[in-house]
Every structure is written in structure tokens, then in C-alpha cells.
Amino acid sequence: MNVDYDEKDKLLTFEITEEIDHHWSDKMRRQVDNEIERYIPKTVVFDFNKVSFMDSAGIGMLIGRYKAVKMLGGNLEIRNVKSSIRKILEMSGIPKIIKIS
Amino acid sequence: MQNKYDNEMNLEILSKSNNEAFARVTVAAFVSSLDPTIEEMADIKTAVSEAVTNCIIHGYEGREGIIKINCKISGRKLIVEITDTGKGIENVDIAREPLYTTKAELERSGMGFTIMENFMDELKVESIVGLGTKVTMTKNIKEN
Fold first, then answer.
1. CATH classification for the domain delimited by A2-100, as one of 3.40.50.150, 1.10.8.60, 3.30.750.24, 1.10.1200.10
2. Suppose B110 and one of A19, B44, B47, B99 were both cysteines; which one would form an S-S bond, judging by CB atoms 3.0 to 4.6 Å apart?
3. Residue B108 CA to chain centroid, in angstroms?
């Protein structure tokens, strides 16, 4: 996972390079939460360009991060979602709460 | 005796989370002889990942145990059986309900069985408390 913070726009971007399953989501959650607490960003972006797999562990992780970001007054966005992953996102209702562009 | 299936594969793995990726990739490789679409492949990998994760988190609750994965091909049908000898599920009907989870503190979404059901054609869950759980999923791979 690559992390980038843009101070001017208070934009924190996570480029996810791993497959999002139970094994990896625990580590990802810790790292993302640390960065969010450190910067208190206005916008958090998960860039899914390199994500080729996600299961329900990803749903739990995304909903948890959505709540954390919102609690700190920010917004969460997911970008560059592949069609194979769009299916699980839509099934879980995530597009209703998280902006996907 | 002749095997009534066109192909069969057995895999035994320890209940370690880094085996989740190994299990789904292995099943995907096994079914690749039927030339599934990218979407069918993604469906199978996701469903296998859910079932194996359930064995690790719920069946064995983080303890070490064996997960057995049996895959068969009959014509254009894939049959996947995933078995653990963990603690079992008290009420399968409730466990299968969308958003039901006993592990909310781990940020589990309660979507595992719902995904298996939606991404595969059939899902059967058999469980005995104290003995373990067997999940059987089938998927028909369309002719291209």
C-alpha cells in the first residue's frame, strides 16, 4: 500500500496494491487508521486501480474506515474500481454511503 | 472403479490466514480447464475465500486446525466442498442471514454466506456443533 498526503487539500490517498481479504485487511486497517489519526484529513481516497481481488473482509474494512473518517469530519472516496470488484461493492450497498468515482 | 467425475482435486491446508489466497488461487487454477470467464473466475475465488475465512475465524476461532477442500468437475459443473472440524454453527439459518455476524468487533460484515449464495449457483451448509462445518457450492461454467 502506498500512502500520499497532500497538505494543501488535506487529501490523504491510499493506493492499495494488495488483494483485500481477511489476511491483509487487519494490517491495512491498522495502517490506515494510524495515517488518518496523524493527518486528520478532509478527504480520504482509496485508489483501487491495482486491486484485483476483494472479499467480504474488504466490506467490513471499508465500512469501518468510512465511520472513522466521518467521525473526524472528513469524507471517504473510492476511485478506479475494476468491474470484478464493483459487483461485491454493489451487493453490499457500499455505493449508497461511500462515493465511488 | 471409474470415477464418476471428469476431474477431482483434494487440498488440505492449515487454518492460517495467509492460506486464504493460496486456496482461492488453487481452486481457480483447477477450474481453468473449463475456460471460465473473468467474472466466473472472480465469483469462484471470492466464494472460496469467504468459506475458508469462515473456517479460520469461526470454525477454529484462530486456533490451528485442518481445512479440507475437495473440488470436482462434472461436465461444465464445478463442485467445491470446504470442510473444517471446528466448533460448528448452532443455527445455520440465522448464520446465513445477510449482515448476521458473531464477530462484529473484528469488523466482519456478515456477508460471507450471502456472497457464496449469490456468486455461486448452489450453496449447502451442513454443521454439527462440536464436530464442524461443511460448505458445498456448485457453479455451472457457461459454454463460451
1. 3.30.750.24
2. B99
3. 17
**Is B112–A92 a contact, with Cβ atoms under 8 angstroms apart?**
no
Kindly determine whether residue B17 and residue A29, on different chains, have CB atoms separated by under 8 Å: no
pLDDT, tens digit, for every residue of B132-141? 999 999 999 9
ipTM of the complex: 0.91
Q: Which residue of B has its CA nearest to A94?
A: B109
Render pLDDT for B68-126 as a digit per residue (tens, 0 to 9): 999 999 999 999 999 999 999 999 999 999 888 988 888 888 899 999 999 999 999 99
| Cβ neighbours of B37 in A, within 8 Å | none
**pTM of the predicted model, to two decimals?**
0.94
Tell whether B97 is within 8 A of chain A (Cβ). Answer: no
Residue-wise pLDDT tens digits, B25-75: 999 999 999 999 999 999 999 999 999 999 999 999 989 999 999 999 999
Long-range contacts of B96-105 (CB under 8 A, 24+ apart): B96/B125, B102/B58, B103/B57, B103/B58
Give residue limits of the domains in chain A. 2-100
Do B20 and A91 count as a contact with CB atoms less than 8 A apart? no
Residue for grid cell 473482509:
A57
Domains of chain B: 7-140 (3.30.565.10)
3-state percent breakdown (helix, strand, coil) of chain A, nearest 5: 45, 25, 30
Query: Is the CB of B89 inside 8 Å of chain A's CB atoms?
Result: no
